[in-house]
Amino acid sequence: MANAYIVDALRSPTGRRKGGLSHIHAIDLAAHSLKALVERNAIPAADYDDVIFGCVDTIGSQAGNIARTSWLAAGLPLNVPGTTVDRQCGSSQQAIHFAAQAVMSGTQDVIAVGGVQTMTQIPISSAMLAGQPLGFSTPFAESELWHKRFGDAPVDQFYAAQRIADNWQISREMMESFSLESHNRALTAIKEGYFEREIVPLAGVTQDETPRVSSLEKMASLEPVGDAYPSITAAVSSQTCDASAAMLIVSEQALAKYQLKPRARIHHLSVLGDDPIWHLTAPIAATKAALQKAGMTLDDIDLVEINEAFASVAMAWLKETGYSHDKTNVNGGAIALGHPLGATGVRLMTGLLHELERRGGRFGLQTMCEGGGLANVTIIERLS
Q1: 375: which strand partners?
Q2: What is the CA radius of gyration of the chain?
Q3: How far is CA 179 from CA 2, 80, 81, 172, 221, in A?
Q4: Residue 247 placed within a domain
């Protein structure tokens, strides 16, 4: 089978809720990353075969196939098509998979992938208000067949985060320590300039706005998000934010034609379903299945990015797999850097690629929990 290569990866800063990027239209936020991607690489814009973007809650400013509209808003050629993917939190990671699969099949050679989310303008609950179940405290009461199979169990991310914490014996204090470490790692990465190569400044915002100087005392003072979730607070949850990211995936033929230097190769890609009531545990099973398919073990993996939807999700994965936290989310995770839903997959992959390059690592693995009990896994091999 043909190989799919990553040539470039970049992102906007993550703007905090109501922060420096909150006034920017979602189309323009996505166009910013796409335009920068095209300008940085020696491929005529008209030669791109497709644009595949992740986005969740495709309503309001995010409606209308934002992959296509953002490409056009960036002033790029009319002939290039685009499609928007929604696999919940894994939307842009799935966009990477679809692009890689197109290249591996030999049907396309040059694809721009990415993701965007403006959570200030379109809050996470907006899809529910529009009648689109999101898996956010949603009982799916309208469906007789769902009720017949799953009963009245809540499809609720907070319920799932608390259930995971209880099942894996992860206390609130343990999660707060994990969260503080996430912020400290992100602050160190910013101070040391680790993100400078991957961030394309926008609207005067030059670095991520979301990491905070905090303390265990401050975190302990926060109220839980609800009586049913005594260990789950804002401190141990991912941050809503505004961001976009983009990546260039090409074939071996495109590398030769345009004289490009590949930075990484897609070594493995897969997706797996798990129990939708547990909701956030799928990365555990998906990682095990992916490694088995790839003929690898975690000993082969130099770095891991697992989305910190909640501290309990990443901590349960670490407990279950035995992988080192020292090699996981090394520059902070979504608790510090934010979780811009549709953009998170490519944001994580962008950070993973750059950190493998900085450290001289070979293999990196990325996974994340997704609404409905899903998880994507991508393994990349650094080449340069």
Answers
A1: 272, 369
A2: 19
A3: 40, 42, 40, 10, 14
A4: yes
Q: 8, 20, 40, 315: which is closest to 166 by C-alpha?
A: 315
pLDDT digits (tens, 9 = 90+) for 249-289: 999 999 999 999 999 999 999 999 999 999 999 999 999 99
Share of the chain above pLDDT 70, in %: 96
- Which residues are known catalytic residues? 89, 339, 369
> DSSP readout, 178-206?
HHHHHHHHHHHHHHHTTTTTTB--BTTB-
Domain count, the chain: 1
* Mean pLDDT within 35-55: 98
20 burial type by CB count under 10 A (0-12 exposed, 13-18 middle, 19+ buried): middle
The pLDDT, as a whole number, for residue 236 is 98
CATH number of the domain that 73 lies in? 3.40.47.10
Over 50: is that where the pLDDT of 61 sits? yes
Q: Is residue 72 part of a domain?
A: yes
Which domain range does residue 100 map to? 4-125+240-258
Residue 141 placed within a domain: no
101 backbone φψ class: left, alpha, beta (φ>0; ψ -120 to 50): alpha
Distance of CA 334 to the CA centre of its chain: 9
Whether the per-residue pLDDT at 130 is higher than 70: the answer is no
In this predicted structure, the answer to whether residue 131 has a pLDDT above a threshold of 80 is no
CB 14 within 8 A of CB 207: no
pTM value is 0.96
Position 267, amino acid: H
Model confidence at 127: pLDDT above 80: no
Residue type, 69: T
Give the 3-state secondary structure of 224-276.
CCCCCCCCCCHHHECCCEEEEEEEEEECHHHHHHHCCCCCEEEEEEEEEECCC
Q: Is residue 35 part of a domain?
A: yes
Neighbours of 202 (CB within 10 A): 22
